[in-house]
Amino acid sequence: MTLTESTTNGNTIIRVDEERLDAHNADSLKQRLAAVFSEGVTSVVVDLQPVRFIDSSGLGALVSGFKNASTHQGVLKLAGLHTQVRSMFELTRLHRVFDIYETTDEACAAS
Hints:
alpha/beta; two-stranded parallel ribbon; 4 helices; 26% strand
């Protein structure tokens, strides 16, 4: 899996540079999120703009990241969800759990 990391306004942005977040690559994201929070980062934005498809494994990786954030008194925000990806969050009601933003700029500006 290709992940790109950057930092903006104290937020670590992890961009998922794949069209699919599924059983084949979700574990890489899960491990990276765990590592970032273990390193002491307290605010992470996952940029899902390139992702066009997400399955239960992808959702599970993000839920695991959310739990890691909570354990380390941090926050995990999501940005750039395409319509199909957003509908998966709504079907599973995870849109009520995550802070979801249109862009990474909006997510970074929100405190």
